[in-house]
Design goal:
Blueprint (H helix, E strand, L loop, with lengths): L1 H13 L3 E5 L29 H6 L1 H17 L5 H11 L5 E4 L5 H5 L4 E3 L2 E8 L5 E3 L19 E5 L8 H13 L2 E5 L10 H8 L3 E6 L12 E4 L2 H13 L1
Parallel strand pairs: 1-2, 1-7, 2-3, 7-8, 8-9
Antiparallel strand pairs: 4-5, 4-6
Helix pairs in contact: 1-8, 4-8, 6-7
The protein binds adenosine-5-diphosphoribose.
Adenosine-5-diphosphoribose (APR) binds next to loops.
Organism: Caldithrix abyssi
Keywords: Metal-binding, NAD, Transferase, Zinc
Enzyme class: transferase
Length: 246
């Protein structure tokens, strides 16, 4: 592993454009359960609550699960070492952007600036009727489902549900960075969900070296990964940080 980490450190230092594509795995060591694999959310809860059609037809039932799974869960989580190393790489101009599938806001809270939220985020609620939008506020939780103060329609979290399209700016920015990347770190993702998983694929097709960090092989590993650093995100990124900065 030591040689692979040294090789990865060299690739990152030499890259003109280095990016990171992150999935739920990077937040596991912050106490946020992944969606799949060991302790995965979809092994305990029906994904239907995040299907737009089901949510619109059953807002009360869906909101009880959504608030428990995401909003209650996220407030206790803190950025971990892996989030912080990515923020340090960006501050040292060794990482130009993070494209994340995560909606937990931990990259921002770790200090990363150029964060593209491919699946939106959990900082805001929006009204699908009148486009009212608000940052999360405690008074919104007085009763579920939270309702729009302007038109009383049910408010929806500002993250992407199954059946919803990817925010167009996040989508296009992600592929602009994918094409520009000389190196892309792919951290903590099964690579099972599209179109997100096509971002590292596009980077690879455009000539990027893919450095994957994951305790388990993913859908990327045998197909597009050039360097597989097998391990937990905090451990591997700590080793990378040492190899790059000392
Ligand atoms: N460090 C790094 N990776 C880890 C760790 C860890 N400590 N623990 C688990 N992982 C890896 C798992 O091996 C797995 O590959 O994280 C990945 C988690 O997979 P998923 O839960 O499927 O996460 P992700 O690929 O981000 O899911 C994509 O699915 O439900 C949708 O919108 C949701 O954004 C999510 C998308």
């Amino acid at each position: 592993m030591k040689d692979a980490v040294s090789e990865a450190a060299l690739l990152i230092k030499k890259a003109r454009t280095c990016t990171a594509f992150t999935g739920a795995g990077i937040s596991v060591e912050s106490g946020i359960a992944p969606f799949r694999g060991e302790g995965g959310i979809w092994g305990k809860y029906d994904p239907k609550y995040l299907e737009l059609s089901y949510f619109l037809a059953h807002p009360e039932e869906s909101w009880v699960v959504i608030k428990k799974l995401f909003f209650d869960h996220f407030v206790q989580a803190e950025p971990n070492k892996a989030h912080k190393v990515l923020a340090r790489l960006e501050a040292a101009d060794l990482l130009q952007a993070i494209i994340t599938q995560n909606i937990d806001n931990l990259h921002h809270r770790a200090g990363s600036k150029q964060v593209i939220e491919f699946h939106g985020n959990s900082r805001r609620l929006v009204c699908l009727e009148c486009r009212y939008a608000t940052d999360i506020r405690d008074d919104l939780w007085q009763s579920l489902p939270p309702r729009c103060p302007q038109c009383t329609a049910v408010l929806k979290p500002d993250f992407v549900f199954f059946g919803e399209s990817i925010p167009s700016e996040a989508f296009s920015n992600s592929f602009v960075y994918a094409v520009k990347s000389d190196v892309m770190l792919v951290i903590g993702s099964t690579g099972e969900v599209y179109p997100a998983a096509s971002v590292p694929e596009h980077a690879r097709q455009s000539g990027a070296k893919i450095i994957e960090i994951n305790p388990q092989p993913s859908e990327f590993t045998g197909r597009i990964t050039d360097l597989f650093l097998q391990g937990k995100a905090t451990e591997v990124l700590s080793a990378l940080e040492k190899a790059i900065f000392t």
